From TrEMBL:
Record-given protein name: ATPase
Keyword Transport: yes
Signal sequence range: none
Gene source species: Candidatus Nitrosotenuis cloacae
UniProt xrefs under InterPro entries: ATPase_csu/dsu_sf, ATPase_V0-cplx_csu/dsu, V-ATPase_V0D/AC39_subunit, V-type_ATPase_csu/dsu_dom_3
Alphabetical UniProt keywords: Ion transport, Transport
Any Pfam family hit: vATP-synt_AC39
Amino acid sequence: MATPSLQVFAGVKSYSIKGKLMTKKDLQTLSESRDLDELVTRIKNTTYNDAISKIQKPYTTQKIEIALRDRQADLHHTMMQASGGSNVMFAYYLKFILKNLKIILKGKILGRPQSEIESMISLHPEELIKERDIVLKALVAKDFEEAASVLKGIGIGEEIEQMYSLYNERKQIQVLDMYFDKFFYENLGRAMKSSGDFSLHSVCGIEIDYYNIMSILRGKFWNLDENQLQHLIVSNASSESREMFTKMISADSLKSALNELLNTHYKGMVPQDENGAISKFESSFERKIYNTMNSQFVRIFGFSTIVAIVRLLDFEVRNLSAITYAVEQKIPSDTVMSKIIIKD
């Protein structure tokens, strides 16, 4: 629990970090790089210099993204300590570890070589909190079943079994994302409810709604039954949200599920065109989350600003990763800039 003095200290750091976030113009300049060498040179002229300078040639999207994520983990860890070890901040930090576990389990399912899986992850976030063992054991497991058995030790054995069963039934690799995300958002919901700061309910609540709504929509697209959809839902939501989820789950089609949102405060994000409706809605919702995080900075030294800055850092790293991929693949600057989430 953060003391008033710690909260002020962390709040000051939040504003300091926010002032150094990249602008749309900065990202535009990066997106216009001719190749990864030029992109790395340009990134070295930003606050990411120390992180990006550690990368050895030849440069790849994967190497660059890992360096960016390691710096993000450093800043998040710093803010977590500055805020007195907040449960909410730790809940958000777990996303780094869960991301690595997703990559490992997907690799095991898809039969990727051990060396390839190892090249896709960094254990730096785990090292910062001295929690490498579980991830390492999952990494060196001979197959998915052994890796899943390891994860039962951290209390997600049931979710792993449900995930593997549904994956075998549907053969959709995104199922892994949904079950790991369920674990993440359930933990976040518990941390939010134990916090005495009401401002966190709107900040974290919108993210839990995002997970639940997107899970229902994807489940409808995959023709999951109502029982399977209920298993995906995170229960730590408001009574109003739970009623909305029940109606969406009972809807007889994806379109009908989306139409249930027309009676909620999310109605402005429902796409008119059914083609690509899920991805369009997801993009609109992510922008709403981004705007919600930015709006927290009207609160002077409120705890929500501390949460908001680590979320804004995540958006920035996602933007930089998208630009890196676009530069590597020779995708036009205008195309990638139209997809990133940033203030105009």
